[in-house]
Amino acid sequence: MIAQFENVTKIYRGEAGLKSATFCLNQGDVVGLFGLNGSGKTTTLKLLSGLLHPDRGQIRIEGQDPRKARDSISYLGDKASFHQWMTPQHVEDFMAGLYHQFDRERFRTMIHTLTVPNSPIGQMSKGQSQRLRLVATMARKARLYLLDEPLSGIDLVSREMIIKELIATWDQESVILLSTHEIREVETFFDRGIYLKDGQMVGNFRGEDLRAQGSGFTDEFIKINGGSQV
Asked: Which region is the signal sequence (predicted)?
């Protein structure tokens, strides 16, 4: 087990942004964190990353508080993280200087495969800059990868290719937790899906169990959210 999330609650302005959530993340899994906007996905990822601290409950990354396990965590947040003048080379140098476990070779391979242009971020499309941020996150050698809506701004055709490349180059001694509400095109890549609704965890299913029942991650998302499409 790489990460343990036990009976965790986070309070915002007197209201629970996340309520009594419990799950674990195991080595070798690609886990989807599914929910509509405002369901608690970003809060969950920030708690796991150590950027937020729970008001109740306990979080452990390989037995440690997340704030003491930062070298084991690579987090792609929902905000831009690089200056507009930076090119992929600038990003590579910046990340390598910041993190001793940054893999330059992997970064360059993924930049090439995902066709990120050699131009300043300010001249890139939203999808291109998002791909650059994803590559920078995944090029770190970590045990826990936390990806907050990494497919946002990326066209439908590219999503499957990006996830396929991400998994092909990923170190399976780690775990990926990827939040999204756009499931349909990429659901076959997930081993497990954790579902959030209104700050509560309402489902935790393995893909093989859903398929055995003639269902899937998208079907469960629609069922949980009262017919909302993905």
From this structure: none
3-state secondary structure 188-217: HHCCEEEEEECCEEEEEEEHHHHHHCCCCH
Strand 175-180, strand 192-197: pairing: unpaired
**Residue 166 contacts by C-beta under 8 Å, 6 or more apart in sequence?**
110, 134, 138, 176
**Model pTM?**
0.94
What structural domains and CATH numbers belong to the chain?
3-224 (3.40.50.300)
**Residue 170, CA distances (Å) to 30, 93, 186 in order:** 10, 21, 16
Distance, CA of 170 to CA of 45 (rounded, Å) = 19
